[in-house]
Write a structure and sequence with these properties.
The complex is a heterodimer of chains A (416) and B (305). Chain A has 1 helix and 23 strands. A 16-stranded antiparallel beta barrel of chain A has the order 1-2-3-8-9-10-11-12-13-16-17-18-19-21-22-23. In chain A, strands 15-14-20 form a 3-stranded mixed β-sheet, with no helix packed on it. In chain A, strands 4-7 form a two-stranded antiparallel sheet. The longest helix of chain A is centred in the first third of the chain and has 12 residues. Chain A is elongated, with a radius of gyration of 25 Å. The relative contact order of chain A is 0.13. With 305 residues, chain B is an alpha+beta fold. Chain B is built from 8 helices and 15 strands. In chain B, the strands form 4 sheets. Chain B has an 8-stranded antiparallel β-sheet. A 3-stranded antiparallel β-sheet of chain B has the order 4-6-5, with no helix packed on it. Chain B is globular and about 60 Å long. Classes of the chains: A mainly beta (416), B alpha+beta (305). The interface between A and B is large, with 31 and 41 residues.
Chain lengths: 416, 305
C-alpha cells in the first residue's frame, strides 16, 4: 500500500519511545547493584522472617550481561501443623521424634521448633544472538538444613514487528531433595508410631513458558504468559499433620502424617497491562489464573499505581486480591471409624481461602546512579473458620485461623 | 552553594529575561533561535533549567552535527567503509532512523544528505541536471548500510546526516531533562519546533502561533498547547525558483527531486517533537496527497498551500 494511505503514526510513536524513553542504563563494565532487606511478620507469634537480598548485574557491552542474586532467609516462629484444637491439653512429638511439646486447650496446634535459615544463589547470563533474538541461561541453588533445590533455565526471546512484539519461550528444570528431621514419615501413619523411613526423598519439576509482549502505543503495553508445570516425586510436607477426631465429641484421638499425590500438573495464564499516563504516572494491572490436577484453582488480581513527584520522588499504592479453591484431598480433620482416604492434608495453604494485600511504596530515584524505596504491606488471609462438617467441640473452635502479616522492605540501588 | 551551582551553568551566550509571568532563556544553537520559557517566580529559579537546556542542545549539536570534524558523524562519513563501533545514544538514533526508513518506504533516509552537493539552495545556483543526481543516487539508500548495533558499516562514498531529526530530538531531549529538573511548567521552542510540559499553573494553555507562508510575519493560526509537541516542515525559506516552478528543499531520497505539488508548510501536533517532525517531512513529500496522508495519521495538523 502506498504511504499516503497508511497510518504510520502509531508505529512511529513506538519507535520514538525506544529513542526517547530509554531506561537508565549502566555504563559498560559497571555493576548495577540492588540491595534490599525484607521483614515479614505474621501475628500471634507465627512465622517471622528477615531476608537480606543482594543482586548485581554487569553489562558486558553489546547487550551481553551477567547477573547474580543472593538471598538469605532467616525464619523463626511457629507454623500451624494442620492438627485441630481441642478442649484438652494436646501432646505432640517433635519431628525429630526425640521430644514432645504440648498445646494448651482451645489453641491451634503450632510446631514451634520451626527455625530455619535458607541461602539461595542464582546466576544468569544473557546474550543477543542477533538484532532480534536474545538468549538467557540461568542456574539457581537453594539450601536449607532439610531442603536442597537446584534448577537450571533457558529463555529465548524473539523480537518481531519493529520490536513492538516480543515472543518468549522458556524452560526450567528443577530438582529438590527433602531431608526431613528424623527421616521421611510414612504418609497416613500415626504420629505416635513414629514410622520413619528413608532419610530423604526427592522430586523433579519441569516448567515451560510461552509469552507474548506487545507494545500497544508509546505509553502502554500488554503481556500474556502461558505456563505449564509438571512435578513428580515427593510432594508431601513431612511436618504436617491431620487430626482424627471422635465422631461425637469432636475431640482429636490420633494425629496422622499427611499424604499428598506424588505428581502435580499445573497450568497458569497470566496477563498484564501497563500504561504510562500523560503526567508520567504509571498504572499496572495484572491477572493470573492457575489451575492444577489437585483441584486448587486460583485467581490473582494485582494493581499498582505509581504517582510521580518532583525530584524523582514517587508513591505507589498497591492492591492484590487472591482466592483459591481447596485441594480435592484437603480436609479440616478425619472422623474416627470412617475409611481413610488415599491422600489427605489439613495444610491451610491447600484449603479454600481468600487473601488481600494492601500496601504502599515510597521512594526516590536520584538519577541513573542510585535510588531507594520503602515498601509497607499488610497481608490478610481468611478462610472458613467454622465449616459445616465440624462436630462436637470443634463447632466452638476456630478451624481456619486468619493470618495477618506485615511486610516491610527497604531497597537501595546503586552503580559501582 | 546555590551560587556555585549557578556559576557552573552560567554562559555568555545565554540570556534570561522576564516576559510577563514567564522567564525566558534564549540562546542560538543548530542555526536556530532557541527559547526555554519557564513559569517561575525568580530569575534564580529559571537560570538552572535554562542553562541545562542550552548545555544539552549544545551537546547534541556537537555530537551529531555534520559540520564538525570532531564527532561521531564525521568519523562515520570519513571512514573507508570499514565497520565502526558506535555509542548507545548514536545506536538509538540509528535504530530510530532505520525504523523511519522502513515505515516510510524509504521517504525518510538519513543517507540522503549527499543530495546537497547537487542542490545548492540559497546560493543563487539553479536546479541540478539529472545526470548530476544520477551520479549521487547510487550512494543513497539506508538499505545499503550494514547496521547491527553497535556496529555500523557505511559503504565508502556514502554519508549519514541526522539533520532531519536532530533539532526535534534535541527539543525532546531537553524537554525530558527539564522534566526531571524542574517542577515548573515550561515550553521548549527551538526555531518553531516546540514542546510544552503541561498547562500553566492556572490551568491555561501555552499559546503559540504558526505563520501562514502566504502572509509572512502574520501568525495566522493561534495554537493552544497544554502538553505535547509541534513541529513544522516547509519550503518557505529554502527553495529555488526556476522556469516558473518552485523547487523546495525537502527532497525525495528515491528520486533526488522535491515533490512539485508540496504544500508550503505543514505543522503537526504530536506527543513528541520527533514524531511531529518526521510526519510533517513525510507529508511534504506526499505532494498533492499531503492532506490525505495527514488525515490518515489521526493527529491535528495545519497544512498551507
Amino acid at each position: 500500500m502506498q504511504l499516503k494511505h497508511r497510518q504510520i503514526a502509531g508505529l512511529l510513536s513506538a519507535a520514538t519511545c525506544s529513542l526517547l524513553c530509554t531506561p537508565a542504563q549502566a555504563e559498560e563494565g559497571e555493576w548495577d547493584v540492588d540491595s534490599a532487606i525484607l521483614y515479614y511478620a505474621e501475628d500471634n507469634d507465627r512465622v517471622q522472617a528477615i531476608e537480606p537480598v543482594i543482586s548485581g548485574r554487569k553489562d558486558l557491552g553489546d547487550e551481553e550481561a551477567v547477573s547474580f542474586k543472593l538471598v538469605i532467609d532467616s525464619l523463626t516462629g511457629a507454623s500451624a501443623t494442620g492438627a485441630v484444637p481441642s478442649t484438652q491439653v494436646q501432646t505432640f512429638t517433635t519431628p525429630s521424634g526425640d521430644s514432645t511439646y504440648t498445646v494448651a486447650p482451645n489453641e491451634t496446634p503450632l510446631d514451634d521448633t520451626f527455625l530455619d535459615t535458607r541461602v539461595a544463589f542464582s546466576m544468569n547470563w544473557e546474550k543477543p544472538l542477533d538484532r532480534n533474538n536474545r538468549r538467557n541461561y540461568g542456574f539457581n541453588v537453594s539450601r536449607e538444613y532439610d531442603f536442597t533445590s537446584i534448577s537450571a533455565n533457558a529463555l529465548w526471546q524473539h523480537d518481531a514487528n519493529q520490536k513492538n512484539t516480543t515472543y518468549s519461550y522458556g524452560a526450567n528444570l528443577e530438582f529438590d531433595q527433602i531431608d526431613p528431621v528424623g527421616g521421611v514419615p510414612e504418609p497416613g501413619s500415626s504420629m505416635d508410631d513414629q514410622m520413619k523411613g528413608a532419610n530423604s526423598d526427592s522430586r523433579n519439576i519441569i516448567d515451560l513458558l510461552f509469552g507474548v509482549t506487545q507494545v500497544i502505543d508509546r505509553s502502554s503495553l500488554f503481556q500474556i504468559n502461558l505456563s505449564l508445570s509438571e512435578a513428580d516425586g515427593y510432594m508431601t510436607d513431612p511436618y504436617k499433620l491431620v487430626s482424627v477426631v471422635d465422631a461425637t465429641s469432636g475431640e482429636p484421638i490420633d494425629q496422622l502424617f499427611e499424604s499428598r499425590p506424588d505428581s502435580r500438573s499445573r497450568q497458569s495464564l497470566y496477563g498484564k497491562y501497563k500504561k504510562t499516563l500523560g503526567n508520567d504516572d504509571v498504572f499496572t494491572a495484572s491477572y493470573r489464573y492457575m489451575t492444577d490436577d489437585w483441584g486448587v484453582d486460583s485467581n490473582t488480581f494485582d494493581f499498582t499505581y505509581r504517582l510521580k513527584f518532583n525530584q524523582g520522588y514517587f508513591l505507589q499504592p498497591r492492591l492484590r486480591l487472591y482466592d483459591q479453591s481447596a485441594a480435592d484431598f484437603y480436609a479440616y480433620f478425619l472422623v474416627d471409624g470412617e475409611s481413610l482416604p488415599g491422600d489427605v492434608s489439613a495444610d491451610y495453604r491447600l484449603g479454600e481461602m481468600e487473601a488481600t494485600t494492601v500496601g504502599i511504596k515510597f521512594g526516590r530515584e536520584y538519577d541513573q546512579q542510585h535510588s531507594w524505596s520503602f515498601r509497607l504491606e499488610q497481608y490478610v488471609q481468611t478462610g472458613e473458620s467454622s465449616p459445616s462438617e465440624a462436630i462436637g467441640q470443634l463447632r466452638n473452635q476456630d478451624l481456619y485461623p486468619d493470618v495477618t502479616a506485615i511486610i516491610a522492605q527497604f531497597n537501595y540501588s546503586f552503580v559501582f | 552553594m546555590a551560587d556555585q551551582r549557578l556559576s557552573r551553568y552560567a554562559s555568555d551566550s545565554l540570556s534570561v529575561t522576564r516576559r510577563g509571568s514567564l522567564w525566558v532563556g534564549q540562546f542560538r544553537c543548530m542555526a536556530s533561535p532557541c527559547e526555554v520559557l519557564i513559569e517561575c517566580e525568580s530569575k534564580a529559579q529559571a537560570l538552572e533549567p535554562c542553562a541545562l537546556a542550552q548545555q544539552e542542545a549544545m551537546r547534541i549539536e556537537q555530537k551529531f552535527s555534520r559540520y564538525r570534524d570532531d564527532n561521531i558523524v564525521h568519523r562515520i562519513n570519513n571512514g573507508s567503509g570499514e565497520s565502526l563501533q558506535v555509542d548507545a545514544e548514536t545506536a538509538r538514533l540509528l535504530d530510530f532512523a532505520q525504523h523511519c526508513f522502513s515505515l516510510s518506504d524509504g521517504y525518510f533516509d538519513i543517507t540522503s544528505g549527499l543530495l546537497r552537493r547537487a542542490w545548492q539552495f540559497g546560493s543563487g545556483a539553479g536546479i541540478p541536471r539529472q545526470r548530476e543526481l544520477d551520479k549521487l543516487l547510487p550512494h543513497i539508500g539506508w538499505n545499503k548500510v550494514r547496521w547491527r548495533a553497535p556496529e555500523l558499516e557505511v559503504p565508502k562514498g556514502m554519508e549519514i546526516d541526522f539533520g532531519g531529526i536532530g533539532k526535534e530530538y534535541a527539543v525532546d531531549s531537553v524537554h525530558k531533562l527539564l522534566k526531571q529538573t524542574t517542577a515548573a511548567s515550561f515550553m521548549v521552542n527551538f526555531g518553531g519546533d516546540c514542546t510544552a510540559s503541561g498547562p500553566h499553573a492556572d490551568g491555561s494553555a501555552w499559546i503559540t502561533g504558526i505563520e501562514n507562508p502566504r502572509r509572512r510575519g502574520d501568525a495566522s493560526a493561534v495554537i493552544k498547547l497544554k502538553a505535547g509537541a509541534l513541529a513544522t516542515s516547509g519550503d518557505v525559506f529554502k527553495f529555488i525558483q526556476q522556469g516558473g516552478k518552485r523547487y523546495g528543499h525537502i527532497l525525495n531520497p528515491r528520486t533526488g527531486w522535491p515533490n512539485p505539488n508540496s504544500p508550503l508548510s505543514v505543522t503537526i501536533a504530536a506527543p513528541t517533537c520527533t514524531e511531529a517532525g518526521i510526519l510533517s517531512t513525510l507529508a511534504m513529500l506526499q505532494g498533492k496527497d499531503a492532506e490525505k496522508f495527514l488525515d490518515r495519521q489521526g493527529l491535528k495538523y495545519w497544512c498551507y498551500r
